Amino acid sequence: MADEIADVIVVGAGNAAFCAALAAQEQGAKVLMLEAAPQQESGGNSRFTAGSIRVVYNGVEDIKTLVPDLTPAEIESTDFGTYTADQFFDDMARVTQHRADPDLVELLVTKSFATLNWLREKGVRFIPIYGRQAFQIDGKFKFWGGLTVESVGGGPGLVAMLTQAAANRGIAIRYGTRALHLLYDGIRVEGVRVRRDGALRELRALSVVLACGGFEANAEWRTRYLGPSWDLAKVRGTRYNTGDGIRMALDIGASSRGNWSGCHAVQWEMNAPEFGDLAVGDQFQKHSYPFGILINGAGKRFIDEGADFRNYTYAKYGRAVLEQPGQFAWQIFDQKVKHLLRDEYKIRQITKVAANTIEEFAQKLDGVNAAEFLKTIEEWNRAVRTDVPFNPNIKDGRCTQGLAVDKSNWANLIDTPPFEGYAVTCGVTFTFGGLRIDTDAAVLSTDYQPIRGLYAAGELIGGLFYFNYPGGTGLMSGAVFGRIAGTSAANGQ
Ligand SMILES: Cc1cc2nc3c(=O)[nH]c(=O)nc-3n(C[C@H](O)[C@H](O)[C@H](O)COP(=O)(O)OP(=O)(O)OC[C@H]3O[C@@H](n4cnc5c(N)ncnc54)[C@H](O)[C@@H]3O)c2cc1C
């Protein structure tokens, strides 16, 4: 691998990197991908995902384009609804409190459908997310929350299909190769310095695309930028995303951008390991909380579990759990909603208690003030608006009234044993702060000029997500900006 020369070097081998590599290759470039992880651990956070992708579609015809093998029976029994560009714009604006960069959002939204079709042409297959994004009511599945398709085989399937697509097109991938520095002569980026098998090498290229993730797996940076206690969060995905790409670019004068103190973080199995486990994938997440309540160690509720559909609250509620004493909470359900719990509640690696009386249950919730918990349940059961019908497919307005922290939707009495509790802590997914790019995905300097030969995509671009995030947007952002970055890098813009 001495002084290997490519037209475009792509750093990383996750979704954004593959999209960049495929797009650059499509322009006729010779592409080399560098991946810090060994092949068996490669694929980045993309491999840990469920493969859910947020995409604009205007009805079943668009879904049929993305999923051509949809059967007539499936079409008949499903209300796919729509997810229009306006809805995607609104979601991005609302959940980021109008901070998301309008130019980046415009690209994300308007290119989402075309980009998924492009990925299909490259060999990536999609299916509707029947399991998690649609509940069956009166024999008909109805999709909700703007998240309707996923890659076949989830994240592992997505990475396998992308890897195959790259191999089919002669794109080389060097695993176990960590990029350390950019080769930069003060005018343009000319390659990267890497470490492989303990040796340092310089790899030359006309352009470099950084697609090597955020800094979520770097406990020191998390504490430095996200704040106190973030060192205590579990990392949901890969241990390789330590902010290298961001650091390399800042070292040569790139401009930082976005919500550096913000991140995507969810409720995650209390006793999960420090980093993600590929055998478990995203199943440590616990995302059925809209149908239950959350209790902290003081025995009190602390958040509106039903403020919105899961897709619009899950990414910020990890932080809420991290802020509780001991950085944990218990998710509480009774039997009435048991059938609504997602598959991830059925895995073996879970901290779960169950009891037939509420008093016995209170004693079993480790670390919780039992007397306060019983008081909370009593008050809760008095506050539920049972006159409003419960409907998990819509924001049903079945709320509580008069509590210090009310619940806005899907409030149910907690009165039907056995009661179940699941212990959760905070799992960090990815960080929001990153590099400033323009609409060609060129990395900008602190003078806001494109740094020649340097492009970026995926988690390490800043300016898209602030405070929160609409589920399924990470993969779409990686795909849209990866494709743009690869195209720009190949054309040397
Ligand atoms: C458990 C989990 C579930 C998720 N579910 C979803 C979902 O269903 N839908 C969705 O849209 N998003 C989901 N996300 C978010 C999504 O994973 C990310 O937004 C997206 O995958 C990021 O893609 P990426 O290519 O930027 O980064 P990654 O896929 O993380 O790829 C970055 C790659 O760079 C490599 N790397 C790092 N440093 C270096 C270096 N110095 N040199 C060389 N290589 C390096 C890493 O090893 C890694 O392979 C989920 C994330 C997690 C952790």
What do these coordinates show?
This protein has 493 residues and is α/β, with parallel strands linked by helices. Helices cover 30% and strands 22% of the residues. The protein has 15 helices and 22 strands. The chain has helices at 15-26, 44-48, 60-66, 72-76, 85-95, 102-110, 112-122, 130-133, 154-168, 219-226, 244-251, 310-322, 358-364, 370-383, 473-491, and strands spanning 5-11, 31-34, 52-53, 78-79, 126-128, 134-137, 140-143, 149-151, 172-174, 177-184, 189-196, 199-210, 234-235, 256-257, 263-269, 293-295, 329-333, 352-355, 419-431, 434-435, 442-444, 450-456. The strands form 5 sheets. Strands 1, 2, 9, 10, 11, 12, 21 and 22 form an 8-stranded mixed sheet that branches. A hairpin with a 2-residue loop joins strand 11 (189-196) and strand 12 (199-210). Helix 1 packs parallel to helix 9 (154-168) and helix 13 packs across helix 14. The relative contact order is 0.20. The model has no long low-confidence stretch (mean pLDDT 95). The structure holds flavin-adenine dinucleotide (FAD). Flavin-adenine dinucleotide is lined by residues 11-17, 34-37, 42-46, 48-53, 178-179, 211-213, 236-238, 240-241, 244, 276, 282, 429-430, 458-459, 472-475, 478.
